[in-house]
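Why run this: before we spend reagent on co-expression, it is cheaper to look at a predicted model of the complex and decide which construct boundaries make sense. The entries below are exactly what would go into the expression plan.
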Amino acid sequence: MSDAPVPSRWRVLLTPRWIGWHLFAVAAVAGMAWLGDWQLHRALAGNTLSWAYTFEWPLFAIFGVFFWVKTVRDELRPAAAGDAAPATPARLPAGAASPGAGDAGDAAPDGAAGQDGAGDDDGQDGGPEAAELAEYNAYLARLHREARSHGRWHGLR
Amino acid sequence: MDADRLRAVMVRAYRVMAYLTGTMLIILCFVAIPLQVLAHSDAMVRVVGTAHGVLYMVYLVVAFAMTRLVRMRTASPGTVIVLAAGTVPVLTFVVERWVTRRYIAPALAGAPEPAPARAAAGG
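The model came back. Tokens follow.
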């Protein structure tokens, strides 16, 4: 999941949910173009206010296409919309389980060392503590999965 | 212009456009359209309606740019609500307050949003 090859990333766009969104986008853009055409006929029939809408609806349709392109690009490159750290979040769940991830950040490294159980600074291999850390790592991995697969909805929470 | 400055400018532009568009829509819906329906005078609808149409197009672009800069996802409900608010009377004002509290203030304070990004930002 972490380092998926390019073809499988594209395949995300062919899930039923995404196909539904594609169809919605096509219908919405077609609808806006149709409204523009309708306003053009009203304008030609003498309704001067319709001239404004004649130009507005095509512009809204163009914005709809632009919005769809941005959405698809967001889905294919989830980290690019945020700050300049695309690689590290993608590797985090794997990295959190390996001792090599010690430089990843402030919270994750403790979890990484603790879950691995190998000799580390803390030394304590306490059962409850290890379970807690494992739970925290699972939580991070789950967050990562959610941000990737349902990232477009995480603004809702 | 660095990223923080650009974000602050776009947030300000979004607020200006939200208030202009919202005010124009309130005038359109609560003054101009009643005049058209009750007094059969559509002069005001023509002016205010066209003005709102033009303002909304600018609002759409500015608001969309703002949502990107405060790290709202493109097809998230939040972004759609922000963009659609310019077509519903009074909603721009409510949404502006909500989006400020929920997204703009955390983004301007430099608070990282998702946990994976936070761990990455620390390194």
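Residues 13 and 62 of chain B are 7 Å apart (CA to CA). The radius of gyration of chain B is 17 Å. Bring this page to Monday's planning discussion.
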